[in-house]
Structures are given as C-alpha cells and as structure tokens.
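Need Tryptophan synthase beta chain's 3D structure for a figure. Predict it.
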Amino acid sequence: METVKYLLSEREMPEFWYNIVADLPVPLPTVLHPGTKQPVGPADLAPLFPMALILQEVSTERTIEIPDEVRSIYRQWRPTPLYRARRLEKALDTPAKIYYKYEGVSPAGSHKPNTAVAQAYYNKQEGVKRLVTETGAGQWGSSLAFAGALFDLEVLVYMVKVSFNHKPYRRALMETYGARVVASPSEETAAGRAILAEHPDSTGSLGIAISEAVEVAVQRDDTRYALGSVLNHVLLHQTVIGQEAMAQLEQAGDYPDIIVGCTGGGSNFAGIAFPFIGAKMRGERDVRVVAVEPAACPSMTRGKYAYDYGDTAGMTPLVKMHTLGHTFVPSGFHAGGLRYHGMAPLVSHLLELGQIEATNVQQLETFAAGIQFARAEGILPAPEANHAVAGAINEALRCKEEGVSKTILFNLCGHGHFDMTAYTDYMAGTLKDFEYSSEEVAMALAGLPSVG
Ligand SMILES: Cc1ncc(COP(=O)(O)O)c(C=O)c1O
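Structure prediction for Tryptophan synthase beta chain:
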C-alpha cells in the first residue's frame, strides 16, 4: 500500500519551540532604536509587546517550552498532516519524491495561528485587553481575530486596502471572530492621513498598515501590538511545523534533500526549514534550502542587506535585513501576504551566511503551478503558497532533466478558499506579471536610513 498521509497523534505534537539563534555560527546583528540608532533594550520594546515575547525575541536558548494552554489550543488542528504528493509526482513524471506539510487545516486556513495563539496567550497573561495588528492577505488578521476570541481580547486589524477590496470574505471572517477591520491607509491615524494626503488613491502596503497599528498600539496602556511575521519570536513559534515534518518524514523513512518555502516576511519558511537548518549547522545532516519570493516584491533577490525600518513611517526599531526600502509600495499583485518590503532578520542572516538560497517567480507562473497542484492533489493553495508550489515543481522538473531522484519537502502554508477572485482573474487572463526596473529599485533603496 502506498501511503499518502503521514500523521502524528496529538501526544506527538512538539513540546518545545526550536530557537535557531542557539545554533548560529555568527550572532545576529543588533536591533537599533529608531530615534537614537543605539541598540534597543527590552524596556524600549515594552510599549509594543508583553515582556515574555520580548524575552523570546532576544533568547539564545535552543528550546523554549510551549505553555500547556497553547498546546491545548494547537490540538484543535495540530499536528498537521504531511502528504506525499504522489499524484503530482505522476503528473510531472518526475523521479523526485515530493512531500508537503499542509498548514491549511488550521481554523484560519494557514500557518498563522501557530503564532497568533501564542502571542494572544502571553498578552493575556500580562493583563493586555486589546491587540492591534496589520494584515495583508487577511490570513494573519483572521488568525489573530480567532486567537483574540479564545482569550477574550479585543482585536483591531488594519487591512491593506487592495486586499480589503479583493477579499470581502476575509474581512467577514475576522468580524465573525469579533475583530474590527479598517482599510489601510485610513483616516484614523496620523500615519494613514499623511499617506492619503500625498497619495489619495494609495492601495496600501504592509509597511503602511504596520505604521498605523503601531501608532494606535502605543497610545493606550491596555493595548499592545502584534506582528504576524519577521520577528524572531514569530519565527520561533512556527518551528512546530518543521519539527513535526521531521518526525513524519522519519515515519516515511525519508529525509529531505531540498526544502522549499515561500517568503513574505519569512515565518512559514522559517517554520518548515529552521529545525532542518539547525541540524545542518550542528553538522548532523545536510540539506539545500530554497526561499521563493515574488518577482514583484523581491527583497532577497534584488534588495539590499542593510538596516531599515519595519514600517513605512519609520516608527519601528531598525533591523538589519534584506530590504527594498521601507517606502517601497509593491504593485497590487494577488499574493497579499508576500507584499512586504523587507525579510526577517534571521532569514536574511542565513542567506548572508550561505545557509539558504533565494529565488523569485512571476505571478502567472505561480498560478499555473497552483492550478496544476490543485488538479493533481485536490487542495487549492493560497496565492502565497503557490510560490512554494512553483519552486517545488521547478526542483522536481530539474530532477527529471538530470535523471536523479531527490526528496523535496515544501510547506503548503495555506489554502486559497478566500482567494477565488485571484484564481478567476487568472483563468480569465486578466492577471499580469510585474517587474521593476533597476532604477525603480534604486530609487526605493535611496530612502534607507543612514546608520553610523
Ligand atoms: C498563506 C500565507 N503564506 C505566506 C504568508 C507570508 O508570510 P510569511 O513569509 O511570514 O510566512 C502569508 C502572510 O500573510 C500568508 O497569509
């Protein structure tokens, strides 16, 4: 019998998050204060985050215990299945073995609840009453709204305007969970009003929505900010994905030669890849790791490794990352979760260290890959996840060309059931590719802050 799904019992769910910082051969560059440009301390971050998350942000411990209450909520959908993509392998006629970890079984439909639940838990523990955040695809906003409902926290979401218009049902889902959703840029904040004064038709960006959320969060003592990607503690919470995949591949008697993930801010990619990269850095097992980003927002493949703000208005701390510049507003392509100007400092650092590779793909190629995947495997991927599907298919076709059988693992980070406008546009032939000229990229990078 050919096994298709590798499943773990609830008892086999990881008890710890894995912190890759403990295994880095070179430490991460320091985080700087946006005003003084001096290293930030935990107290500087206290208006934004609860102390437990700040301590995770700077932790160098290899493992951090997952609180029982968080694990008990994870059990609503974790462990998630690992699939062997036997039908896709046949369709591609490839000698490669393709496995995918499916995070779309979570209540919100993606990997995002892995950190939303943890963040809501620590905020609740420290007496916070309200969380403010941004969302691009709506997956993160839905996840925090869901977590807020479980912990009786008020949730306010600034949703990038282009996604707000494309995805009314994501907004309805957030409202069903009890959150308030505002299209960003909005008239509700100084940051939003400044953008609208200059660009009344702005379609928004994650950087702008983050500025709005941070501005609102620091105004009230009972309110904190929550971020769905990029930060060390967010990537940490996602490592349950890779740890489970490792145990499931062991069941299958396999180990990946190649791991593929899509990258917006880097969290689902980190989730699947970090436990394996840790093993590689400890000299235990080798693996090739490929991050796939959109050609229309190519922070790693065309950006610069430099200190930059996490948001457009320059309110967040400065981090060293691959960036297109905090003022970069990507075109309104459909993978809303990948429209971020920067990349997680940890993912950027690993790219600099040569531990991972980065590549970019065009929108039309990603939808063609997603549809091929759906027709073979049945699951309809989120437009963001289509980038990983395209990356995995490219690797499998290369195996075919070279006549080698490699084991490919990719993260199918979410389903696309709320993204049917994007699919219908693709099928109607109205979607197009976006490419930036070198001049446009250079112009956005010219706004990088100078750091001594
Ligand atoms: C389904 C999905 N995949 C990927 C991403 C990109 O984020 P990250 O790179 O942090 O996984 C998002 C972000 O909203 C998303 O919704």
